[in-house]
Design brief:
two-stranded parallel sheet, globular, TIM Barrel, six-stranded parallel β-sheet, 10 strands, binds zinc ion
């Protein structure tokens, strides 16, 4: 089975003065991408579905995909979710637990956007949205001392688990940065899967703690979007 996982940040028009305009995908672009996926028979699944499949406990539809959102912006609820619902897709959102209900304080030089708060998160979980951890403070894990890495991974997993009322299975490495030690610490902290940013399909043999995600940005054209899915499918099998 080949699994593409996409990663988005903000679905919105690019505000003037943004330092990282690539992190935006306009609502029109996003709707066109969802329409493309629907037209080509993709079904979105959760990481829990995928983990059960990898354990041999369940089957999956023929063409599956996971849509993910990093950082947990409030825009994900107000703009992205209604569009996803329209096309019948679900999503997994990675939260920076120390900043829930605040803004993207870890990138102080970027325009500050509100992040989902606790009641947003609980409401969304009830409608089937899945949540994962993106550490406590959006840390550069590869640059921290082991004790600090463990603190980031454990406190975020504990706090998010308490908020969601269930164990947190998936971790998103901020900035896609990790080392072999990070993987071990993630495992030790109880994560079953980890996602990075790398333009590749996932196969049945892909390390669950190094799942690859295809970044979708404001520069992703419709042709590029289709190319990423089909070229990668062809290169890595059906
Ligand atoms: Zn991020």
């Amino acid at each position: 089975m080949r699994l593409p996982i996409l990663v988005y940040h903000k679905i919105d028009r690019i505000p003037p003065g943004s330092r990282y305009p690539k992190n935006y995908v306009t609502p029109e672009q996003f709707a066109a991408q969802l329409a493309f996926l629907a037209r080509h028979g993709y079904t979105s699944i959760s990481f829990l579905d995928y983990l059960a499949y990898r354990r041999g406990e369940r089957r999956l539809p023929r063409r599956v995909i996971i849509l993910t959102f990093d950082d947990g912006y409030r825009l994900t609820r107000t703009i992205a979710l209604p569009l996803m619902r329209q096309y019948g897709f679900g999503a997994t959102i990675f939260l920076v637990t120390a900043y829930v209900g605040k803004t993207n304080l870890w990138d102080a030089d970027e325009i500050q956007e509100p992040l989902l708060d606790a009641s947003d998160i609980r409401d969304m979980q009830e409608t089937g949205i899945e949540f994962g951890s993106q550490t406590a403070t959006h840390a550069h894990l590869a640059a921290l001392r082991p004790v600090e890495v463990l603190r980031e991974l454990r406190t975020s997993r504990e706090q998010l688990g308490a908020l969601l009322g269930k164990p947190v299975a998936v971790l998103s490495y901020p900035y896609g940065e990790y080392t072999q030690d990070t993987l071990q610490f993630a495992r030790d902290s109880g994560y079953e899967a980890g996602v990075t940013v790398r333009e590749r399909m996932n196969r049945d043999a892909t390390d669950l703690l190094e799942l690859r995600r295809i970044p979708i940005t404001s520069l992703t054209s419709p042709g590029r979007f289709a190319w990423d899915l089909f070229r990668l499918r062809w290169l890595h099998g059906a």
